[in-house]
Amino acid sequence: MSDKRKDYISWDEYFMSVAILSGLRSKDPNSQVGCCIVSQDNKILSMGYNGLPRGCSDDEFPWCREGDPLDTKYVYVVHSELNAILNYRGGSLEGAKLYVSLFPCNECAKAIIQAGIKEIVYDCNKYADTPSVLASMRLLDAAGVRYHQYHRTGRKIEFEI
After folding, report:
1. What is the C-alpha to C-alpha distance for residues 32 and 64, in angstroms, rounded to an integer?
2. For 3, how many CA atoms within 13 A lie in the half-sphere containing its CB?
3. Of 10, 18, 60, 102, which is most buried by a Cβ count within 10 Å?
4. Phi and psi dihedrals of 48, rounded to 5?
5. Catalytic residue among 60, 66, 81, 107, which?
6. Which of 15, 50, 3, 5 is nearest to 157 (CA)?
7. What is the tens place of the pLDDT at every residue in 82-106?
């Protein structure tokens, strides 16, 4: 009997890699955020990335971050977490785990809570001190949704397609 391979990636590495890879689909020139929702038995249920709603052209809406609100991306873009929740077609997400490359905002936190997702693993929290993230944490804590930062292993994962 031969020894099995020992250098395989962990579930956390796998699912966070899927989330980050999903984010690469985003057309946003500044923020590419990806999300992967996983069942309690480690099956991928849904994925999403930040982008415009279905049927809205990436070329006809703004990607600016400053100026008149109607000339910025913020009022048009659907965040990766909400996209992943809305993309799911299998029924309930109750008890699922969500992997996301950026800590969820308060609007996504509400959707996560309402969907029944019980755990969040996030890669980065660069907006930690903003009202949106502080409100998100308050909501998640009140609803009993656990969250923790992904601990990068430093492993380089690359392949050619």
Report:
1. 14
2. 4
3. 102
4. -165, 165
5. 81
6. 15
7. 999 999 998 899 999 999 999 999 9
